[in-house]
Design a protein that fits this description.
about 15% strand; Rossmann fold; alpha/beta; single chain; 7 strands
Length: about 300
């Protein structure tokens, strides 16, 4: 009996690749969706483009510690291992160096050798190799604005779109494995204005303080400059929110456990916004919009698996 036949779970035989810029991005964007699909038998792989070497230490309890600052790259790898185990996913490093988030006016140049300055052809080549080896049916990444304006997030979008198209072409990167055509490409829409508004209103209705007022204002300012994401797919994942939060807390240097991300009680989140949301950017299969499944149009069709 084959391994696929032995696994009767609904996602057996399906493969999902989630391409992220830094360790911790996978836990703050789409983590509950990944955990749900893992439990359903889907093979899920996170591809992390950089090591997060220039990430700021955002946990107040760990700030100012020279031992952490001196070993941040190694520490973030350990954190990634913990988060990966909590979610149950596989994880590969693409091998580039964090660009950091440039700040100031005018913005300073990016540091030499970082991901944002690497020749895009080399970055696409490495990701194509991952796609051809893993053979995902679905890929998720960020939209053209990066989700937020970090140069590594924008570059992550660029190489994911390019690899989605290039992986199936035998004449492109011929030494990087047998061609494979992913069937759907999604952009993560984790921090939409609609979601912020819903959670804010749910907290106020319960007589609780909302951490979202300032974030809603910043979102409004940014929304005037960039395209508003179009949500096509809402995946019900409320029962996996606790795994999402545990995975994010595993990135201890990168998150304040008392910060805004954890300010909404899970019961309110499950009632006010029980989904994680995505925008379908490319599809080679037919599915009815709106969707509630990243594998809509693929699931149940053996010829596509």
């Amino acid at each position: 009996m084959s391994e696929r036949a032995a696994d009767s779970r609904p996602g057996a035989g399906l493969r999902l690749m989630c391409v992220h810029a830094h360790p911790d991005d996978e836990s703050s964007k789409g983590a509950a969706t990944m955990a749900r699909y893992v439990d359903e038998g889907v093979d899920v792989l996170v591809v992390t483009c950089t090591g997060g070497e220039r990430g700021s230490i955002l946990n107040p309890a760990l700030q100012g510690r020279a031992d952490i600052e001196a070993n941040i790259a190694e520490i973030r790898r350990v954190e990634m291992d913990r988060a990966r185990a909590i979610l149950g996913v596989g994880q590969h490093w693409l091998g580039f160096v964090d660009s950091g988030l440039p700040e100031g006016d005018p913005l300073p140049p990016l540091p030499e050798g970082c991901f944002g300055l690497q020749p895009i052809d080399e970055a696409v080549r490495r990701l194509v190799r991952e796609v051809r080896e893993f053979r995902p049916h679905v890929i998720t990444t960020y939209d053209e604005n990066g989700g937020y304006p970090h140069p590594d997030h924008v570059r992550c979008h660029e190489i994911s779109v390019a690899a989605f198209e290039a992986a199936a072409d035998p004449d492109v990167y011929p030494g990087e494995g047998e061609p494979w055509q992913p069937l759907k490409l999604y952009y993560d829409v984790g921090f939409s204005r609609e979601r912020f508004d819903s959670l804010h209103e749910a907290l106020i209705a319960k007589g609780l303080e909302s951490p979202f007022e300032e974030r809603r204002k910043r979102y409004e300012e940014r929304a005037q400059k960039v395209r508003e994401p179009k949500v096509t797919t809402r995946v019900p994942v409320a029962d996996w929110f606790h795994r999402r939060d545990a995975a994010l807390l595993a990135h201890a240097t990168q998150v304040d456990p008392n910060g805004w991300f954890f300010a909404v009680p899970l019961d309110i989140q499950k009632e006010a916004w029980p989904t994680e949301d995505f925008e379908l950017a490319r599809s080679l299969v037919d599915s009815q919009i709106p969707e509630d499944d990243l594998f809509a149009g693929i699931r149940g069709k053996p010829e596509l698996q």
